[in-house]
Write a structure and sequence with these properties.
Layout: H1 6-43, H2 47-78, H3 81-100
Length: 101
């Protein structure tokens, strides 16, 4: 994972963990909504839906960016980057083992 930008740290330090946890819930909901719209188009690729695809994809990208920024801030504010990276690596290894079966 890359190093957190100074500007992102500044935002996180200003809003603090409690406020950003609330923001995370909001961003998760918005990302889920965008993902569901995208999935609906992929499940029903009618001409009408395909005309909406570009805008829906752009919204999905925007919501993913918002979500990743808030997650990055929470990891920084929780000051547990090492522990989180360890857990991530364990999950990656477990998933790779499942794939190999």
């Amino acid at each position: 994972m890359y190093e957190i930008q100074q500007e992102v740290k500044q935002i996180a330090d200003h809003y603090r963990l409690g406020k950003q946890m609330t923001k995370l819930v909001e961003e998760c909901a918005e990302f889920i909504q965008a993902a569901m719209k995208l999935q609906a188009i992929q499940d029903n690729p009618s001409k009408e839906n395909m005309n909406k695809l570009g805008a829906v994809m752009n919204n999905w990208y925007e919501e993913l960016a918002d979500l990743s920024l808030v997650v990055e801030q929470i990891i920084y504010l929780a000051d547990k980057k090492g522990e989180i990276e360890l857990i991530r690596q364990e999950k990656i290894e477990r998933t790779l083992q499942e794939i190999e079966r």
